[in-house]
Amino acid sequence: MLKKNMVKIILDVSMAVTFVLLMNPRVFNGLPFHEVAGLVIGVAVLVHIALNYKWVVNTTKKIFDRSLSGKTRFSFLLNVLLLLSMSGIIVTGILISKVVFPHLLSGENHALREIHDVFSKLTLLLVGVHIALHWQWIMGVFRKMFKTKEGNWNKKVIVTSVLILALFVGSMQWLATNVKVDEAFKPKFEQKVAQASGTFTPPGKFREREFPHKEHHGNSHPLLVILGHFTFWAVVIVPVYYIEKRMRHKRQVRV
């Protein structure tokens, strides 16, 4: 059971880090990394659902059962909303793709891009609430992972975690280095941006001009992007966690 929970935690942390990096499309090499990592996230979501398959099936069967706790019912609804919003991100992302699926839609579709951004921000908020509801479980798994029954640090798990983290960072770097934009696509895209803005885009400025939206400007350093969005999650997690804790205490008092 602990091994399965470890796999879940490692997968979820990797998904969380990758997702916040995708919130700024200028991270790493820009559009290529953004699209490829987005598809990887889609696969990871399916794996996440598979790992929680029994809970999904059992909760679905009991969703209208009065014996089901309010927290479980709310968590189920939240997961459904998360699945829908993630699906919205992936579908709109594929439709506006310029690297992986460059020929699905011709021209710029600003409406789809705006919908893509809305789904992304909604998902960011929902993930924060999701983490808050599972905070006790997360901390419990981490304690069991890194501490032995005697209360000492589990060196094997720490070393394994460091190696997995190194592999994760290495895979991110590999994507950023090896996934490139089709050279034939660059001039066409630059020309469209130049025509829309009335300015000339010098060669080599493709990465900076990929996303002219105001919200995509600013520092795109990966660590700062992660820190900024994890801070946002902290702002969401803290109040939701304590509200849920207070409600749980009230239920225990009633019983």
UniProtKB/TrEMBL annotation:
One of its GO terms (cellular component) is membrane. GO terms for biological process: respiratory electron transport chain. This is Flavinylation-associated cytochrome domain-containing protein. The chain crosses the membrane at residues 7-24, 36-55, 76-98, 118-137, 157-176, 223-243. The keyword Membrane applies. Keywords: Membrane, Transmembrane, Transmembrane helix. Residues 78-135 form the Flavinylation-associated cytochrome domain.
